[in-house]
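ingest -> validate -> predict -> emit
validate: passed (alphabet ok, no gaps, 246 aa)
predict: started
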Amino acid sequence: MKKLSILLLFLPILSWAQFSSDFVIYSADNLGFILVFNQSRINAQYQNKIVLSDVPAGEYPVEIYFSDPKYSPIYYMVQIPNSSMAIFRIEPVGYSNTHILKLQNTILYSSSSYIQPPQPAVRQPYPFIPQNGGSLQQPPPPPNYDQYCIPVSDAEFANILANLKAEAFDDSRLNLAKQIVSSKCLTSIQIKNILELFSFDDTKLQFAEYAYDYVYDPENYYIINSSFSFDSNKQKLIQYIQQHKR
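emit:
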């Protein structure tokens, strides 16, 4: 009876270890990032370490977007073995603005050597796993990028700047810039780069106020202030932001 009790005690652990996997991802240089795992955004705020629990074995697309927009996003396919902890490390490449995702280690769970997953900054069940048994549900549609937009790439933004520079006058450039910012996801630094294309402070102010309602990172919008020549326009923008706080 004593042997049977011990066996029953460990059955839940053995069952968990046999069918579950953990996906661990962290930034080697502590750079905050947003993780999109299999077309599902995982974290709302920037984190430098994330663990997903109870992930089925398989291959998944991963997208990583950094808190600092000067760093290019990462797009990668990760392979997660069954009954394991797959640990991936994000690390910089030399002195460039590029990071890569590397498999650091794979720890296989077993009945003889069960390892408790580490406590991360963010830990949550993989969203496609049913909580009380049963078959897997269909994955939800891709995230609503009106709510969680993904900034345009450096290459796409270079093309945007080229099209804006081709406009001969501030008025036509402003109309095109408004069309772009309302349909694309742009960061504060990208908005600032667009502002530098306008000749007049008043036009800059018009665009800066309009773009604030669409910018990806409103918390960084203060960098726009240095684009103005006159303090009065800086104050007008500050007042607009206070009245339209996001």
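The longest strand covers residues 99-108.
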